[in-house]
Amino acid sequence: MYINFFVIALALAIAIGGCSKNSTTGEDTTMPPANLIVSPSDGQSAVRLDAAIALTFAKPVDRAVVESNLHLISQAAMADSLCPDSTMMPHRGMTNIMGDSSMMRHMGQVHAARGSFLWSGDSTRCYFKPDSMMTPRMQYMIHMGKEMMQMMERRLGNMGMMGGHGTGMMSNDMMYHFATMDTTGSGHGHH
């Protein structure tokens, strides 16, 4: 319990501190997580609609585990009131679903974007390319399930500094959020 509190406090301090530059050299002095870099990053906005999800690992990982545990889910899918699976309770939005393991499993199985994976030869870089373009002005979640996180802990070491988040029963999962770009051209005159 003490270690989890320490990790959360340290992650919050890093998030609040943000990127900083060395006043002498002008270099960025914020260190990225050593074991995993996710793009788009948590909180990123104006992401291109045709963007791929990119994961860069410090060491080779098990491709099958990553592919079965990585899900891209839109906010619209999480609020789908016309879900064909009548065994599920009503969808309640992203914040509520993040703490509910059965709803997250449902989201991954039924509502996650379909797509293809492309890997580097050494299994340290993975791209997930959705089959169709993402929706403009939409919030998305990159969900990395518990099995993936456990595999990464075994192969890469402590994952506590990653910056993604899971809550409640989902505390062993990683969730990153980003928003896609606005393609309406709002703010520009129309002729």
- Mean pLDDT across the residues is 75
Oligomer: single chain
Global structural class = alpha+beta
- Cα radius of gyration in angstroms: 18 Å
Poorly predicted sequence stretches spanning 5 or more consecutive residues: 1-33, 187-191
**Largest sheet descriptor:** 4 strands, antiparallel
Account of the 3D structure:
By secondary structure, this protein is an alpha+beta fold. The chain is 28% helix and 22% strand. The protein is built from 6 helices and 8 strands, in the order H-E-E-E-H-E-H-H-H-E-E-E-H-E. It has a 4-stranded antiparallel sheet with strand order 1-3-6-5, with no helix packed on it. Strands 2-8-7-4 form a 4-stranded mixed sheet. Strand 5 (115-119) and strand 6 form a beta hairpin. Helix 2 runs antiparallel to helix 6 (146-156). The longest helix has 16 residues, at 2-17. The radius of gyration is 18 Å and the shape is globular. Mean pLDDT is 75; it is low at 1-33 and 187-191.
Main features:
191 residues; disordered N terminus; 6 helices; single chain; alpha+beta
Topology summary:
Elements: H1 2-17, E1 36-39, E2 44-47, E3 53-57, H2 63-69, E4 70-74, H3 75-78, H4 94-97, H5 101-111, E5 115-119, E6 125-130, E7 139-144, H6 146-156, E8 174-180
Parallel strand pairs: 2-8
Antiparallel strand pairs: 1-3, 3-6, 4-7, 5-6, 7-8
Structure summarized in a few sentences:
The radius of gyration is 18 Å and the shape is globular.
